[in-house]
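S1.2 Input.
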Amino acid sequence: MILPDLDDPNLGYETGVHLGDGSLSEYRYVISGNRHNETHYYEDVLAPLIRRLYGIDPTTCFENSSVYLRIYNRELVLFKHSVLGFPIGRKLHLDIPNVAMRNLEMTANVVSGLYDTDGSVKVRHDKSGDYPRISLGQKHEELVEQTRTCLSLFGISSTMYRNDYFDPRSGLFETRWFLDINGFRNFDLFLERIGTRSPYVRGRIEAIDAIR
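S1.3 Output.
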């Protein structure tokens, strides 16, 4: 395994991906996404990124509607846990790692990776017309608050709110926190200063550009 440079923007981006879709166990690192719209992203973007960063070939797997990258490497797990601060097991508490704040380029890449995995891009409609919204949804309030602070460093304003709902899969009431970036000004700032590496997100952006 290769230990990456802590100032490498690619590490920042992959850290954001881990915040969104990654998980650690004692001997395994897994990233999971939607098979229908993220397969190309996983195979053409994330898998090569893992190889460049860590010198490890991830295994791509498909199960039902999900796509997975799986890496069995104890050294990688220890690096992510001890150096980056990611929890092993359930993500009961999640923070943006300190590595994200080493410089603005790292911060932008962490936020980009997080939004590429846990965010959405859509068109909203109201009486004044159509406008873009970039939205992030998470169970971890602290992570959403920290992301909002990161966005403010780039002049991007956002709205944070909570949504309580009943999850029929678990039979429990759940709380999710959302962070919305609204309007063309913020949309353009996000694309310029944060950006995306996801083919699916780029397609959504092109659809937004069509309504200007």
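S1.4 Remarks. The radius of gyration is 17 Å.
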